[in-house]
Design brief:
By secondary structure, the protein is α+β, with helices and mostly antiparallel strands. It has three domains: 46 residues, Uridine Diphospho-n-acetylenolpyruvylglucosamine Reductase, domain 2 (2-Layer Sandwich); 116 residues, Uridine Diphospho-n-acetylenolpyruvylglucosamine Reductase, domain 3; 108 residues, CO dehydrogenase flavoprotein, C-terminal domain (Enolase-like, domain 1, 2-Layer Sandwich). It is built from twelve helices and 14 strands. The strands form four sheets. The chain has a five-stranded antiparallel beta sheet with strand order 4-5-10-6-7. A four-stranded antiparallel beta sheet has the order 11-12-13-14, sandwiched between helices. A three-stranded parallel beta sheet has the order 1-3-2, with helices on one face. The longest helix has 21 residues. It is globular and about 60 Å long. It starts with 6 loop residues before the first strand and ends in a 9-residue tail after the last helix. Bound molecules: flavin-adenine dinucleotide (FAD). The site of flavin-adenine dinucleotide (FAD) has 29 residues, from strand 2, helix 2, helix 7, helix 8 and strand 10.
Length: 294
């Protein structure tokens, strides 16, 4: 299908984008267009005006410091994935980005666009929640900062108010003793995940003292698997009884995942529990589970 007719405006600056968005309640931000344009083609979205921020140099930066990585709204997923500096400070970024679609998608799609889109099966919202990322928003009433944990409200629904844009997202630096892996199940390579997990696990003196497990493809927003995290604390290996305990905790953390044509609730629950066990075992015991995609 073709999209309904719309006007297009290439913003000259962030202020210009914000003031143009304020002129029409049916205007939408265009970044990489990798989610918005398909949804317009299906007429799931019929904006009257697209305000393109994808060409703004002031939003293109990927800045890595010892404190974290700050990514502008025009920075593509591939620009972040290919930044060695960003990968050194927040290794989870590259690990998560590699699971997104294909190189062609990541070449146009932006990190902030994925966060704004808030697909429940997307990797980056789950990473943002797992790592304690914060979003900087600019709108008609000025600038504000929102924690990822407060940003995601539901499927394709965020804390963004009318006329607001994400200008930047900040991911805090990962502690040196922490390892992050991303693992997911999809029907075909490059498809959206049926379910997936971001696991950040750290040890000191031989036993786990940090465990963050953020699941996606399960509910309306990323789901922290807190019972499973609790099982990991203090472990120095995952033997058979520990793996069973972890499986059961993750299974119960999953709650009642949604059901669709691709997978049942039970399939998603069992899959996330298995993924958690495999991914945590790979980190703690260094098993051969790959848990990555290149
Ligand atoms: C074939 C295919 C496979 C894909 N596979 C995956 C996958 O496996 N995992 C995954 O996570 N994603 C996947 N995607 C989606 C991809 O990651 C998108 O690029 C991303 O979700 C949206 O980023 P974008 O820059 O393209 O945003 P756009 O499509 O331009 O915008 C998406 C939405 O966010 C809003 N928006 C964008 N930027 C901002 C901003 N800075 N401030 C406020 N609102 C904003 C837009 O108004 C729109 O509503 C896939 C896409 C395709 C086409």
């Amino acid at each position: 299908m073709k999209p309904a007719s719309f006007d297009y405006y290439r913003a000259k600056s962030v202020d210009d984008a914000v003031s143009t968005l304020a002129e029409s309640p049916f205007a939408k931000v265009l970044a990489g267009g990798q989610s918005l344009v398909p949804s317009m083609n299906f007429r799931l979205s019929t904006p009257s005006l697209l305000v393109d921020i994808g060409q703004l140099d002031e939003l293109r930066s990927v800045a890595a410091t010892p404190e974290g990585v700050t990514i502008g709204a025009a920075a593509t997923q591939y620009a972040v994935e290919s930044s060695a500096e960003a990968a050194a400070v927040v290794p989870g970024l590259r690990a998560a980005l590699r699971w997104i679609g294909h190189r062609q998608i990541r070449n146009r799609g932006t990190v902030c666009g994925s966060l704004a889109h808030a697909d429940p099966a997307a990797e980056l919202p789950a990473l943002a929640v797992a790592t304690g990322a914060t979003m900087e928003l600019r709108g008609p009433n000025g600038t504000r900062t929102v924690a990822a944990t407060d940003f995601f409200r539901g499927p394709f629904w965020t804390d963004l108010q009318a006329g607001e844009i994400i200008t930047h997202v900040r991911f805090p630096a990962q502690a040196p003793n922490v390892t992050t892996r991303v693992n997911e199940i999809a029907r075909r390579s490059g498809d959206f995940a049926l379910v997936g997990v971001i696991a950040s696990i750290g040890s000191s003196n031989g036993s786990v003292d940090t465990a963050v497990l953020s699941g996606f493809g399960l509910g309306a927003t990323p789901v922290r698997l807190t019972a499973a995290e609790g099982v990991l604390h203090g472990k120095n290996t995952l033997d058979e009884p520990a793996r069973m305990e972890l499986y059961e905790a993750a299974y119960s953390d999953a709650g009642d995942p949604f059901e669709d044509v691709h997978a049942s609730t039970e399939y998603r629950r069992e899959s996330i529990a298995s993924l958690v066990v495999r991914t945590a075992t790979a980190i703690i015991d260094g098993s051969s589970e790959k848990g990555g995609r290149s």
